[in-house]
Design goal:
mainly alpha; Ribonuclease iii, N-terminal Endonuclease Domain, Chain A; Double Stranded RNA Binding Domain; 2 domains; 14 helices; 3 strands; RNA binding; RNase III domain-containing protein; RNase_III_dom; ribonuclease III activity; RNase_III_sf
Amino acid sequence: MSGPAPAGTPERWLVRRRKRRRYRALSSTLSTSRPTDTQAPRPAWRRKRRCRLVRRRRRGAKPPDAIAAVEAILGYTFADKALVEAALTHGSFHAGSRAGGAGATYERLEFLGDRAINVVVASHLYSAHPALRPGALTRLHSLNVDREKLARAAVAHGLHRFLRHETPFLGQHADDFAAEIAAYPVHSNGQVRAPKCLSDMVEALIGAVFLDSGDDNEQVWRVFRRLADPLIGPEMVGKQPMMEFNELCQGKMLQARIVKKDWAKSHTVKVVVAGETVAVATYGKNKHAARNRAVKSALDIIKARKKDSMVTLTSAPHDKDGMSVGGDHCPPKTPDLLSAMSNGCN
């Protein structure tokens, strides 16, 4: 075993570091001084790997086939085929200019279609429901034009099959979305997160119809009604989970909070009522949908406990003050929550 290095002798790690620095400096000098035409060619395996990384397979049907199929779905024939071609082109498809020509995408048409949809749907609701108050009309309008409703239309008609893009998981996301909304025939009220590109494509197609028809709102309404049918009516509107939860907690004076501090690690949201964790939910990496799912689960649990506690109160003996007598008649868990829900159960 060798002893310590003599005084003034650098350590081995320091010697190795100096050698590496000299080697890098020498390599840099040689590479900059070498003429361009005499540079060594890149190895074949590295060239192939670079091509695989840079070149991605473009997805989507060919424009002529897609345009004819989309026109059949919309029930509208475009005079300017370039508009519908742009409406079917995602921003990832072109690496060049997006201002027009071969590089046009649906982004500008989406902006126009969003406004056109809002106008025609608001006009229809105003005429079809003269007795509804502005608040109910606003809620109804929001449900018929939001991202989930438009994405449902895209999936129902298979429009996502014709979108030209370079996003590898778009088809899988559309299939997952279709499977999730099967549990919510009308609307999930925020419990399912819809892929944004699906709703964007529908808005872009409506914008293309608006331009191609010469700003004809009647034609826009016919196409949108064909895509979005059936529209959500007043009898089909359900309460948004967060709104219903707030109303319930305020009416019963319950102290409730939503805990999201563990989101970065576990992607979970907790609902705590009267000091008890009532529900926990997760939804991929989408905090908004996870919160709505946790709140909806908490609502179901609280309502079930309220029903059970009311049955217990009806069958239990009471004292002169109306309080339930005997510990066996009241649920042993979460007394604060149950007492608030049953108006007096200890």
